[in-house]
Amino acid sequence: MRIHQTLLTFAACLLAGAWMLSACQTSQANVPTATPPPTLAVPTNPPPSQERLPGDGAVTRSLLTYANLLDGFEANSPVDEAALTLPENAAHPEHSFDGRLELLDEESSGGHKIVSGSADQSETLFHLPPFDFAFVQNGSYLIPVQRGAIVAEHPDWNIFLEPGRAWQEDSDQGWTRASLPFALTVKGGNATFNGTLTFLFSDQQISRVWYQVTQETDLSPKMDLWGLLEAAYHPETLAEAGQVRQAFDQEMAQRFPTRPIEKLAEDYPGVNLQAFGSGVTPGYMTYYGFVINGVNYVGGCRTRYGVYPYCESMRASSYSTAKSLFPSLALMRLAQKYDPQVGELLIKDYVPEAAQSPGDWEKVTFNNTLDMATGKYGSDGFMIDDEGGKMGEFFAAQPYAGRIAKAFDWPDKIPPGERWVYRTSDTFIVTRAMQNYLQTQQGSQADIFQFVVDEIYRPLKLSPGATTSMRTADDNWQGQAEGGYGLWWTADDIAKLAWLLNDQGGQIDGVQVLNPNLLADAMQQDPSDRGVDIDTQRKYNNAFWAQKYGQREGFACEFWVPHMLGISGNVVALFPNGTAYYYFSDNREFTWLEALRTADKLIPLCP
């Protein structure tokens, strides 16, 4: 069975189903230590990339040695990630890598191990996609020229490249050592497999390249990949080198203020660190974090072979957190820029395929569709439609024409706006509706995802990898942006997005970017519009979930916690005291009880 059959079954057909399994009990309140909000727009001087590594190169190494990389060695598994990590005593690099790194024989080399899930996979799954990419060195940083999701010439994989490091070790005989983070993503799916690679180089030569993939955000399969490949170094002066270096300096300077999660106990003495990441099986955690007073405290970033060398670049599958952070934000931005009533526009007027639906779309609005309240469904049981075979047909349908037809292939049940029935196909429909509406404003070349990138993501300084989306298979996977899933986040991306929504009221650099009324609805700040009922304690509004807490849980007041969920075990909870707790994992575990209790002790949730 090929990867885009197996993985789409587990990591796409169940993409949107998510469960909120937490409940709050008693809380205590203390006055927090106030700190100023982060400043994201002013680069540091000098740029971080120009700082010299302070070590003398006296590094003790037993794995991936000079001889291993030059002469080769037998490997039956990945190695400890520490062997691919910049060591504490590394010296500043003597050589500069500028040009193309080409790996050879990727399609036939390397080892693999299925950790869990189906072993019935195609052989191509176990090999890297073709790798021939340009890099620019900036101080001790090695920067890929191409960023974001790269559509590869491979039946199963696409690839992300992220900035790595270069350094000197005394035992490397004058060669410079480098390592790079990368991620493999499923072609036609959202699953993410994080890896690292390392090699030695001089001005004109390169050693073999060791790679390993040791962590994923994916329900199934979970697997290790590794190998030692022959490689070629093609030195060249790249015309865009200066621009790449400048953009990277800005990217580093504009990262959200970040500290390890352990530092939270130093900044807030007595805090319960165990509250963060609790309830999630450690082996299934990608990363987690807590945002408070303008600082992102990050934990996790572990693999099956130790701590990932590049936590700041570790990518996690968005799954259905994309619903909240792409189409929902798109509607808020359209409403702010063009028409506050854009949510009341009719689907039938902007998606002509609605006319072929067995259901009646005459009165269904953009807002109804974003709220999962179209009135067209098979079963109103919790997640039955979204996890059923008919939705599986939608996920498998390609290209756009087949996909939109499956999205509309649901019968009438009740009038729109009356009942919540979660179906990722509805998000695809409203994403297309907003795309076509945008084209009435900007012309036929306008793209709704690029609109969100240009109007929200880039002004917010999200990472380059967050500016690409999974799309339908049209034009070599460059068709309609999915909307309901298909993005990839770093912890920095999530902190900035949470900050925009939960602290800044939809403003970026003092400019109101998101419609404040729609944002208030999503954040449960307007008692007159809580959204559509899920059950007696939960709502769904503008693609955000929310749960109510009050005296029943031991609180002195009643409040709502808006949040985003993703099928694999992804949570972004926006606490109404201005803090945020998030984690990305892949064992379908959903809980934030202890984190909410701890947040309440730091900043009171009740007056």
Short description:
The chain is an alpha+beta fold and 607 residues long. It is built from 15 helices and 26 strands.
Describe the structure.
The chain is of the alpha+beta class and 607 residues long. Helix content is 22%, strand content 22%. Strands 1, 2, 3, 4, 5, 6, 7, 8, 9, 10 and 11 form an eleven-stranded antiparallel beta sheet that branches. Helix 6 runs parallel beside helix 10 (424-442), helix 6 (327-337) packs across helix 11 (448-457) and helix 8 (389-396) runs antiparallel to helix 9 (400-407). The chain is globular. The N and C termini lie far apart (57 Å). 52% of the residues are buried. Residues 1-39 have low confidence and may be disordered.
Q: State mean pLDDT (0 to 100 scale).
A: 92
Radius of gyration: 24 Å
Count of separate DSSP helical elements: 15
Largest sheet: 11 strands, antiparallel
Distance between the termini: 57 Å
Helical fraction equals 10-25%
- The secondary-structure class comes to alpha+beta
Strand content: 15-25%
Strand segment tally: 26
Shape: globular
Q: Uncertain spans, ≥5 residues at pLDDT below 50?
A: 1-39
